[in-house]
Amino acid sequence: MYKGTRIQTLYNLLSIVFTILLIGILLYTVSELPVMGDALHPANNEVAAHYLVHGARETGALNAVTAMILDYRAFDTLGELCVLFVSACSVYILLRVDAGRKEEEVEALDRRYEPWNDAILSKAFLFLVPAVFLFGIYITLTGHLSPGGGFSGGAIIGAGLLLYLNAFGLEKTERFMNRIRYRRLNCGALGFYFLAKGYSFFVGANDIKSVISVSDQGNILSAGLIMPLNVCVAIVVSTTVYAVYLMFRKGGFNI
Amino acid sequence: MNNYIVTNLPEVAAIILFGIGFSNLLLARNLIKKIIGLNIMDTAIYLFLAAKGYVDNAVAPIVPPGAVDPDLYVNPVPSGLVLTGIVVSVSVTAVLLALTVRLYEEFNTLDIDEIVHQLRVKDKEAIR
Description:
The structure holds 2 protein chains of 2 kinds.
Chain A (H helix, E strand, L loop, with lengths): L5 H27 L13 H14 L4 H9 L1 H22 L7 H11 L5 H23 L8 H24 L5 H27 L20 H24 L6
Helix pairs in contact in A: 2-3, 3-4, 4-8, 4-9, 6-7, 7-9, 8-9
Chain B lengths: L8 H19 L3 H23 L22 H32 L4 H16 L1
């Protein structure tokens, strides 16, 4: 225990001095950076210009950010999805409780942490939850035409799942979102993403004519692989959000 | 030293936010507050990247077919990097919070000094 001792004071002082030094060094670096907002800024180089000018023709996606993360740099996004999946697995390993806990105890915990028969909550969420789901699906499906995409749409759908869980309880949520379905959805989405993008990169690198064509820009079915990949991303993000919340809800997980 | 510090105000704000998060990481005793400090640092990085990609008088990079002038749109590359950063930060936060739950169950405290103290006492007893 160092609380209130001289070592504690010294540590606090050193921390403050170190932080101020760090801020000073970084501010010095910022003062050497080029002017922000300049169109001739070195960060706005030919890579970004290529994505903006040729992105719509080459990928079919009008949203240049979606074109970048799901076409030009799609394997980076696959890595992100794997990071999400691995983090959900790590949380599961860390929070899994031993088989010692009884079923009734879990049921009692459910009663303590979830509102049961809360009329206002369930009636309000009856109207709110479908709207949230619809909005999330819309953002996911039009990710290549408007701002949004799989990550934001998946986060909204995940939030809708959390609302549903909090309003109606675990038992009702388990009817359409249980462990087996989580595993199937997640592994299916990751597998489809890997296979589709692997095919696309293999075909592109070897100059073979791909069966997936890009035409008719601006329509919802125009962008070739981008819309299915957006759906995959949304599935992984929403199920991960839901699974992580489910595990943290009671500080343990033993279903 | 060029005097660009006035023109790069969002970057200056990002650096100061980074410093606040970093000092929080060093000074806070509570593990949850440490995680909040880490998240403030993440947010500072997003602000820095968004400022890097900004172009004056430009709009979001939703390019209609046939557009040719890239200077009319902000740079899409830093936006993609921010997306990556958000995903990684969410994952790291989830794992850290899970570890914190486990530590609290073991030691019944969130104070890092208290946890170290209890570990030392345990070690001494093990040596005896």
